[in-house]
């Protein structure tokens, strides 16, 4: 199933290489280079699985996530919040190339996550299952994927608190939080909107809609930036505290969180056609694109308010999510031309100056992301979700430019 638009990809490297990169490199990573990287990543995953198959607590290592501090490849268990992204990367490669070998690998890695449909230990069931099984269904129409996704949606709504009007994101830190909801949780609504369409049950839609509304009221500041964590009282539904977990401070604008919000409200508009959600997405986009601390190459620092800017690490994952979201937003918004231009600029920057050199980074496509700076964890490293959203953005860009 090669898209007509795939031809364009052959020319993308030439188009991009005509644009001068702001740092040292001048040519973007090509689809051929990406394929070679991911082939290497696959081999490296198999090596880890052969040499060190389980984590210290006995869980099978299945999906590549990042590079550890000691320089080794981190291959994480199925229950990790990022486990859906590697199968998703493989599905995107199938979508971009039409080649059966990517489909075969994608099917294999997707199946590894089957049991995760029942994992309701946090809100991440949406990330795990929609990146893997969601893409699998979208690209194959194989109906055997449907019951797994339906069960995943059931698992997710079990975390919904009626009094709050939100899905609870996390269960840890109970000494401080009762019902913490993170801006990232907007991403998991896609599974619920899909489930409502699929089953005809309006409950999924209604809960997702209410979560988006509650979040719009409580997570956003007057300047349209968002808090990372809002904690609610489980009895009264009142906001208890506005906080952060991965940002610089409670009051700062954690970059990936801003991108999750942008993507989340754009996607919510797709399903609801409620103009307030579109306006929210536009407000976030305008806040980010007009931010004085957004560098010229449009790859944000890990937090827009990080104190050491310009000496702070960039977060490529925040940039990739932002690019993918802008490619969707540009199709709905009156400012579409601007959003498309900005998304193109991000893609040019990522492909030119943030891509791994051939053979580098165990085969991850991009470097220079940040998982948690306050946790001193995954700083300036590749992350599987940066690669996932980069490829998703490439698919969206290709589609947009084909018509
Ligand atoms: N949802 C976790 C993160 O963005 O790091």
Could you describe the 3D structure shown?
The chain has 403 residues and is mostly helical. The chain has one domain: Glycosyltransferase. The strands form 4 sheets. It has a 3-stranded antiparallel β-sheet, with no helix packed on it. A two-stranded antiparallel ribbon has the order 1-2. Helix 12 packs across helix 13. The longest helix is centred in the first third of the chain and has 21 residues. The protein is globular. The two termini are 18 Å apart. The N terminus is likely disordered. Bound molecules: glycine. Glycine (GLY) binds next to loops.
Highlighted features:
403 residues; mainly alpha; Glycosyltransferase; three-stranded antiparallel sheet; two-stranded antiparallel ribbon; 13 helices; 49% helix; disordered N terminus; binds glycine
Write the layout of secondary structure elements.
Layout: H1 6-17, H2 31-51, E1 63-67, E2 73-76, H3 85-97, H4 100-111, H5 125-140, H6 146-157, E3 160-161, E4 166-167, E5 179-182, H7 189-199, H8 202-218, E6 229-232, E7 239-243, H9 255-272, H10 275-289, H11 316-329, H12 336-353, E8 369-372, E9 377-381, H13 384-402
Antiparallel strand pairs: 1-2, 3-4, 5-6, 6-7, 8-9
Helix pairs in contact: 3-4, 3-5, 3-13, 5-6, 5-7, 6-7, 7-8, 9-10, 9-11, 11-12, 11-13, 12-13
The chain binds glycine.
Number of strands: 9
Strand order of the largest sheet: 5-6-7
- What number is the mean pLDDT? 94
Main sheet: strands, sense, barrel: 3 strands, antiparallel
Number of contiguous helices: 13
Report the portion of residues in β strands.
5-15%
Shape: globular
Taking the alpha carbons of the first and last residues, their distance comes to 18 Å
Uncertain stretches of 5 or more adjacent residues:
1-23
What is the highest CATH level, the class? Mainly Alpha
Order of helices and strands: HHEEHHHHEEEHHEEHHHHEEH
Which distinct ligands sit in these coordinates? glycine
CATH architecture descriptor text: Alpha/alpha barrel
Helix percent reads: 40-55%
């Amino acid at each position: 199933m090669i898209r007509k638009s795939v031809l364009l990809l052959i020319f993308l490297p030439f188009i991009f290489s005509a644009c001068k990169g702001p740092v040292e490199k001048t040519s973007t990573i090509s689809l051929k280079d990406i394929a070679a990287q991911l082939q290497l990543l696959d081999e490296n995953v198999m090596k880890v699985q052969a040499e060190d198959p389980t984590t210290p607590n006995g869980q099978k290592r299945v999906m590549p996530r990042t590079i550890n501090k000691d320089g080794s490849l981190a291959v994480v268990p199925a229950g990790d919040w990022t486990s859906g992204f590697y199968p998703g990367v493989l599905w995107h490669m199938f979508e971009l190339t039409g080649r059966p070998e990517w489909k075969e690998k994608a099917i294999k890695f997707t199946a590894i996550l089957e049991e995760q449909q029942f994992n309701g230990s946090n809100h991440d069931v949406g990330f795990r299952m929609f990146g893997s099984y969601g893409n699998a269904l979208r690209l194959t129409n194989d109906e055997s994927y449907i019951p797994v996704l339906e069960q995943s949606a059931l698992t997710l709504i079990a975390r919904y608190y009626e009094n709050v009007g939100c899905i609870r994101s996390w269960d840890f830190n109970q000494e401080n939080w009762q019902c913490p909801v993170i801006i990232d949780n907007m991403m998991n609504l896609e599974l619920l909107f899909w489930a409502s369409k699929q089953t005809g049950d309006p409950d999924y839609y209604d809960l997702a809609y209410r979560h988006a509304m509650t979040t719009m009221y409580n997570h956003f500041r007057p300047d349209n930036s968002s808090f990372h964590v809002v904690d609610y009282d489980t009895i009264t539904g009142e906001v208890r505290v506005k906080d952060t977990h991965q940002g610089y401070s409670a009051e700062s604008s954690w970059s990936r969180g801003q991108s999750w919000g942008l993507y989340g409200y754009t996607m919510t508009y797709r399903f609801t056609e409620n103009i307030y959600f579109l306006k929210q997405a536009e407000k976030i986009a305008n806040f980010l694109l007009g931010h004085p601390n957004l560098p010229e190459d449009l790859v944000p620092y890990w937090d827009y308010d990080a104190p050491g800017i310009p000496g702070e690490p960039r977060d490529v994952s925040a940039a990739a999510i932002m690019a993918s979201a802008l490619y969707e937003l540009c199709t709905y918004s009156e400012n579409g031309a601007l959003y498309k231009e900005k998304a193109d600029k991000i893609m040019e920057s990522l492909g030119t100056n943030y891509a791994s050199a051939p053979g580098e980074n165990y085969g991850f496509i991009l470097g220079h992301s940040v998982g948690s700076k306050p946790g001193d964890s995954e700083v300036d490293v590749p992350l599987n979700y940066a690669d996932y959203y980069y490829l998703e953005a490439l698919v969206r860009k290709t589609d947009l430019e084909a018509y």
